[in-house]
Amino acid sequence: MKFIKIISDKKFTLIAISLFLYVVVNLFDGERGLISYYEKNKLIKNLSNKKNKISSELKSIEKKNYLLTEAIDLDYLETLYRKKFMVGKSKEKIYKIDE
Question: Which of the residues 13, 56, 64, 97 has an alpha carbon 20 to 30 A from that of 79?
Fold first, then answer.
């Protein structure tokens, strides 16, 4: 009985403490909390780096494709043939470099 009387006298304090705890817990944890914010920023940086890497690879492939289709570059084709098929001119020494 005494416990119920104490609780009824301190209703405002208990509600204020519980509301404060709720706000603090949701500030740090939760889907929109501080911890989640830093995790999402880290994920965005990783995805941005991956995007830059993939876009640079794409530009390289587009350039090679252009050299083989639009304006056929005979020097580039010769380089590809030599690298792929180990073809050389007569009296030419060929050295293979493992990549």
Answer: 56
